[in-house]
Design a protein that fits this description.
With 179 residues, this protein is α+β, with helices and mostly antiparallel strands. The chain has helices at 26-38, 45-65, 71-83, 88-95, 99-111, 133-157, 160-178, and strands at 2-9, 18-25, 86-87, 115-119, 127-131. The chain folds into 2 domains: 1-43; 61-179, Arc Repressor Mutant, subunit A (Orthogonal Bundle).
Length: 179
């Protein structure tokens, strides 16, 4: 089996990036990859962290531009969809905003028919917020729109090899996000 290997790694403490392009059998490729890794300069993790922060921020802003409603509303709808019904105060804690700000966001969503409130059966002073069917449909439509943009960009602008790197990177980024 023939495999193309293209590696580009940065940043390093010495400021150099290693770029390697080769075509080899899988066994030779594996040996060469291991040899390359053992000779790699030490990675400057602070510089790597800074680069990741900037690039991920740019990607998040680009994805936010594809949202069909304000980001604060989208995050609340997404949380309610993933985690189920919640109180306004619990939503505020989860989103790291003031309860008053979350109450306003929930009121706006309720006015648009995207969420509803019902009394908390355990504490009548609190209200439980949940997605309506209209809210779930709007959220799913928004997700399809954003996923469609991202999928089209990946398909149109990246080679199959780059797509494979993105696939591998998503697992590493997930681990980073969960740590």
């Amino acid at each position: 089996m023939i495999a193309n290997v293209n590696a580009s790694l940065s940043p390093f403490r010495n400021g150099l990036a290693i770029t390697c392009g080769m075509q080899a059998t899988c066994a030779v490729c594996l040996c060469l990859s291991r040899a390359m890794i053992s000779r790699m300069p030490e990675i400057d993790t602070a510089l790597l962290a800074s680069d990741l922060r900037v690039v991920l921020g740019q990607l998040i802003r680009r994805l936010r531009a594809e949202h069909r409603f304000p980001i604060t509303q989208g995050t609340v709808l997404g949380r309610l969809d993933r985690e189920g019904a919640s109180s306004v105060s619990d939503l505020a804690v989860a989103e790291r905003v003031r309860p008053q700000s979350m109450a306003q966001t929930v009121s706006d969503l309720e006015a648009d028919g995207l969420v509803s409130r019902r009394p908390d059966p355990d504490d009548k002073r609190r209200a439980i917020v949940e997605l309506t069917e209209h809210g779930r449909a709007a959220l799913n439509d928004d997700r399809r729109h954003r996923d469609g943009w991202l999928a089209k960009t990946i398909a149109d602008d990246f080679t199959p090899e780059e797509q494979a790197v993105l696939l591998q990177s998503s697992g590493l980024l997930r681990r980073l996000a969960e740590s």
